[in-house]
């Protein structure tokens, strides 16, 4: 169950990162509320995962999911540029997430 909580936490991290862009420095009310709620949900689910997972592993996977998800969202919805080297680096992040999961004792 802790791994599911960690994935949910990572997805909420993507949500608050997207909301942060739309909040325009917390000057737009609705995106600002969305961002804050996403942060709370992300930290909550991370805290649940941390009950049984090692801190370093959970934190690295949480930030990795958030990083990759935010990059993908930026490419698809904000038309942010992406080149081959960047895609390779994203692949390394994904490989790192998978590797940490595979070697985790839980």
From TrEMBL:
The keyword Transmembrane applies. This is Quaternary ammonium compound-resistance protein SugE. Belongs to the drug/metabolite transporter (DMT) superfamily. Small multidrug resistance (SMR) (TC 2.A.7.1) family. It is a multi-pass membrane protein. One of its GO terms (molecular function) is transmembrane transporter activity. The lineage of its organism: Bacteria, Bacillati, Bacillota, Clostridia, Peptostreptococcales. Its main location: membrane. It is found in: Cell membrane. InterPro entries: EmrE-like, Small_drug/metabolite_transptr, Small_multidrug_res. Keywords: Cell membrane, Membrane, Transmembrane, Transmembrane helix, Transport. The chain crosses the membrane at residues 33-50, 57-78, 84-103. One of its GO terms (cellular component) is plasma membrane.
């Amino acid at each position: 169950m802790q791994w599911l909580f960690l994935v949910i936490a990572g997805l909420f991290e993507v949500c608050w990162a997207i909301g942060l862009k739309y909040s325009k420095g917390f000057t737009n009310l609705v995106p600002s509320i969305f961002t804050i709620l996403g942060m709370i949900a992300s930290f909550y689910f991370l805290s649940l995962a941390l009950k049984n997972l090692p801190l370093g592993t959970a934190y690295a996977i949480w930030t990795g999911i958030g990083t990759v998800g935010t990059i993908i969202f930026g490419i698809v919805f904000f038309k942010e540029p992406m080149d081959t080297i960047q895609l390779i680096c994203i692949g390394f992040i994904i490989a790192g997430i998978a590797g940490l999961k595979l070697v985790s004792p839980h």
